[in-house]
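User: For my dataset I need records formatted as: sequence, then structure tokens, nothing else. Please produce one.
Assistant:
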Amino acid sequence: MAGCRIFKVGRTTGLTIGRCNGIDSNVRMELPPNSDRKKTDRKQYRVTQEHCIISEKARSELAYNAIYQFSAGGDSGSWVFDEIGTLVGLLWGSFESVTDTNCSYFTPIELIITDIEATTGKEVRLL
């Protein structure tokens, strides 16, 4: 997937274009307490593998020397697609830098489907 052009339409940034940089990140997230685990019990974590998208600079004169972000606050939950319109994942966050790019992260759709099926015991079908 490295170098693949990626698209999304977010609530905050609208339609944006980026490229998968081919570097996956392992992200450790604390799980919230549930009925089996009280707040005083030992913390539990889930490690997930996420893909990184590097934003492309806008090419219009209006955006000359402007920072172009693939995503911003409010875009989390946006579907991420490849150039032929195939759903490839779900955007969940980004890291903004002081340079002219930012790195956004998405969870691959295969991992999302596997998790839903394991949790519900049902087959996921995308129409």
